[in-house]
Amino acid sequence: MFNIGSGEFLGLFILAVILVGPERMPRVASDAAKLYVKLRNLAQGLTQELRSNLGPGYEDLDVKDLHPKTFIKKHITSVVDQVDSPVKEVKELKKAVQLDPDIL
Q: pLDDT by residue (tens digit) across 1-11?
């Protein structure tokens, strides 16, 4: 998510221990975990509210689908599939109805 490697994470952890102090570190860590849970629940609630406000047809909406490239790609793919479906059926029918040259 933030492109933080293990070395950078270790450096940030050491810096946090120095700045906060080892005696207050457990309390700060538990507060950070509580904040993370609150933010996650808030984001899930907002996503559910967005789905309900958009109405029918958006029940399977994912937040990643709101990115313009993903949104356009998803809808173009559905249109192309609708257009290609009859073409595929015609090709399958042609294969099934091929005439035997010995009969002619």
A: 567 788 898 89
